[in-house]
Amino acid sequence: xxxxxxxxxxLPLSELSLGSWRTFGESISEKTADELMTLxxxxxINFFDNAEVYATGASELLMGRILKAKGWRRDTWCVSxxxxxxxxxxxxxxxxxKHVIEACHQALERLQVDYLDLYFCHRxxxxxxxxxxxxxxxxxxxxxxxxxxxxxxxxxxxxxxAHAAAxxxxxxxxxxxxxxxxxxxxxxxxxDYSRLYKEAGLGTTVWSPLSRGELAGHYLEEKDEAFxxxxxxxxxxxxxxxxxxxxxxxxxxxxxxxxARDLEITPARLALxxxxxxxxxxxxxxxxxxxxxxxxxxxxxxxLVLLDEDVLEKIESIFKTSPRPEETFR
Length: 330
Description:
Elements: E1 3-5, E2 12-14, E3 16-19, H1 30-42, E4 47-49, H2 58-70, E5 78-83, H3 97-111, E6 116-121, H4 130-142, E7 146-151, H5 156-169, E8 176-177, H6 187-192, H7 194-199, E9 203-206, E10 220-223, E11 226-229, H8 231-239, H9 246-262, H10 267-276, E12 283-286, H11 291-298, H12 309-319
Parallel strand pairs: 3-4, 3-12, 4-5, 5-6, 6-7, 7-8, 8-9, 9-12
Antiparallel strand pairs: 1-2, 10-11
């Protein structure tokens, strides 16, 4: 496993990490969750991602039980939670001081830890002044209940405003962002945040590097040296809730799968290696429902060497998703 510093902090996180969204407390058993965390930890992963909203708290309860039972040294792993969606009641949703503080305490109880390594504002709260959120996070840092705080899917402008409020009032600024980043979703990560990486030292823990499994191509089968949608894949695509025009996306993934075959790796590994090729990615969060998939995807860290300029150009020619800055008129 390789490690990267979280932005301009000195915290080294594994290039690949394990997340619990849509799996822990929902689609997999506690035994499978235990096996996944054990495999991840023994493979060098030192960051486990979670949130108050995942399985309405059951995900954190499950992860907490596993971490407690394993007895791994607390100074060898990091765990996160996120605050925004705590419940339906008005005082359990948002980023105002009351919910930020109470949600943190509840996450600590569910995860059975004394502090959170990373704590994220899960989405922006348009009803709460940013300075109120920054002040609440600062209090948690100074109390030792969280070590680092950051944002998820915030605009570059709002992150900059949070930094400005922190500088003005001598508060603790956010140090990381958790955006979606993959071959289909690139503009915010590559374009909107571009100045923040250098000017604010922004670290990133990216989610959905496989576009919720779409880029893994599990719905494809090889036929006459080409990849086509299988019968089982038709059902997956029907249930996946993909955006309009997904047929074009499927064709792109089929071409991508052919390229991965030529490189003698899986499409998932190629997609993960592509994400890790970006030096602004601190860690890419993996989701997994069984150990076989996790074992295979962990190999992506060794696949970066395959992504030379020729391969990168082929990938770009398939997806054509590279964002372009707006032309500046003089």
